[in-house]
Amino acid sequence: QADVQKLFLGKSTKLSNGANARIVELTDGADGRVSFHAVATGRSEAQVQSAWSRLVFTGKAEAPIQVTDYQAVISTVAGNPNAIGYIDESALTSDVKVLLKL
């Protein structure tokens, strides 16, 4: 869970294989995004947005890819081996691999 927190807050940009991680998030303010960050990172929506704004502005990280729904998260992650995202368990398909359940 600590690795997930670091990735989704931009504190780490590399996956365990050394590749640059591509973070896939639901759009700002989406219920699933707010719920995920409350549990996984312990941060509010405003805190997450602020952290990413600083990182992008200073060039320390690329902004997360934002998508509108869980199906888009699945297709984006399935199409990029270095992408990591989150979905509700009810949306899970065999197209992606579960790394952590919260």
Structural overview:
With 102 residues, the protein is of the alpha/beta class. Helices cover 39% and strands 10% of the residues. Strands 2-1-3 form a three-stranded parallel β-sheet, covered by helices on one side.
Summed over residues and divided by their number, the pLDDT gives a mean of 94
Number of DSSP strands? 3
Order of helices and strands: HEHHEHE
Q: What is the C-alpha radius of gyration, as a whole number of Å?
A: 13 Å
Strand content: 5-15%
Low-confidence stretches: none
Structural class: alpha/beta
SS element count, helices? 4
Topology:
Elements: H1 2-8, E1 22-26, H2 31-40, H3 45-58, E2 65-67, H4 70-78, E3 83-84
Parallel strand pairs: 1-2, 1-3
Question: Quick summary of this structure?
Answer:
The protein is an alpha/beta fold and 102 residues long.
Task: Provide tags for this entry.
three-stranded parallel beta sheet; alpha/beta; 3 strands; 102 residues
